[in-house]
Amino acid sequence: MHHLLDALSLPLFAAAALVFVSVLAGVVSTRAGFSLLLVFLVAGMLAGKDGPGGFSFNDFRLAFWVGNVALAVILLDGGLRTELATFRTGLRPSMLLATVGVLVSAAITGAAAHWLLTLSWPMALLVGAIVGSTDAAAVFALLKSSGVRLNERVAATLEIESGMNDPMAVYLTLAFIGVALALGNAVADEVTLGGIAWSLLLQFGWGAAMGLGSGWGLAELLKRLGRGADGGGGIRALLIVSGGLAVFALTTWLGGSGFLAVYAMGVVAGNRARRLVRSSLSAMDGYAWLAQAGMFLLLGLLVSPSEMMDTLLPALGVSLVLMLVARPVAVWLCLRPFHFSPHEIGFIAWVGLRGAVPIVLAVFPMMAGVPGAHGFLDVAFVVVLTSLLLQGSTIGLAARRAHVALPDLDDTEEARLVFGDFVLDANTPLEGLCGFYGLPVPGESDQTVGQWLRNELHRPPVVGDVAELGKAEISVREMDASRITRVGIKLG
């Protein structure tokens, strides 16, 4: 009996102590600007066979299972916190980034992998697919902890993109695994364009249908249970998590994208039963952080730094091409048609955070038996480390430099620096405004300043948007839903 208890207590002590120390170190390190997720990843490495911990872990099936479950919980939590109002400005650009953007990033990064890692084209494009999407866990966590309030267009685009681009990355990874295996077995004719298109349709079709339907059903269930019948927000959060994981598993079994389904479920349920869900968000936050901690620690255990030395420099080259070329090109192509400003495009391009998703996807080819697949895990790990270290630790600085961070309106001095010294009602006649401040009168002067500003922007306005009128800058200071209510004026 004593031996049985030892078999329980020692592994449990090691796991709990590792999480405890990692969280403690992470809380301290975040004050220095480092990502908490980065600390979990490094802690896993230190506990691994090349670190002081010396624990040898190579159970890729367990890592695959834990990684997928953790991502499902994180996406569900992110969906519950996403308000439908943000889709007004973020849905269309996010959809393009989550599909075409991932494809462009994967293609350019794949080309870099072909030259730097001397891989065949199918294998190189597989590397591009593995690291091609942004990571919901990293984006949700680091935007929340960065301490900056982004303008609605930028924040919505980043959050919705990270919540919706996993299906495309999974699809591309599976498609290129199929191509690599087919070419290796000299049966390339088995991989057809029709089959690839049908697989993509199933991924998005089943994912959207299951997510929207289950979200509506969960919201109705929560309304019927009411506030007092379920014992509080903790029990309600457990109900939501278990329901989300069931939908994730069922959608995946049907051939759809479980990631898209669970995110859509969270968005629909969170908005249809907002007051009931809000009391569960504290518990959901705990589930999401536990999922992130477990996932990053486990994935850190998988990696052996001593085995990465041969590919370290080429992998760093692939990572730099992804951050400095592939992601910016993809973002510019996708967002320019929506009239995003150069500063907004630059910031969104920089915050293309990579986290656990590339490492989880790198396990796919290993489980499928693709030759040389362990090298993909090393490349993915280098990409994630550099992304969290360089991009994750500079979000606040980048937001301020790109002028996409909004001030606290209670901080009068900071608000005046951003919006100017003068505040006017958006219904103020434009001609009177121009006459008072000595500004040039636009051709159509029989409109309000709010109408003029909306027309000048050529896009749905958000707080912080700016248009120039002569020597003045007119900015959106306050809004009511989609209507501009107050503007700021900065002269000179």
Briefly say what this structure is.
This is Potassium/proton antiporter. It is built from 22 helices and 6 strands. The protein is α+β, with helices and mostly antiparallel strands and 492 residues long.
CATH architecture of the largest domain: Up-down Bundle
Which parts are unreliable, with pLDDT below 50 for 5 consecutive residues or more?
Answer: 186-190
Compressed to H and E, one letter per element, the order equals HHHHHHEHHHHHHHHHHHHHEHEHHEEE
The coarse silhouette is: globular
CATH class of the largest domain: Mainly Alpha
Mean pLDDT: 85
Percent helix range: 55-70%
What is this structure's SSE topology?
Blueprint: H1 2-30, H2 36-47, H3 60-80, H4 87-116, H5 121-130, H6 136-145, E1 149-150, H7 152-164, H8 166-184, H9 193-225, H10 233-253, H11 258-272, H12 274-278, H13 281-302, H14 305-308, H15 312-335, H16 342-350, H17 356-368, H18 374-391, H19 395-401, E2 405-406, H20 412-419, E3 422-425, H21 430-437, H22 449-457, E4 466-469, E5 472-480, E6 483-491
Antiparallel strand pairs: 1-2, 3-6, 4-5, 5-6
Helix pairs in contact: 1-2, 2-13, 3-10, 3-11, 3-13, 3-17, 4-5, 4-7, 4-8, 4-15, 5-8, 6-7, 8-9, 8-17, 9-10, 9-11, 10-11, 10-13, 15-16, 15-18, 17-18
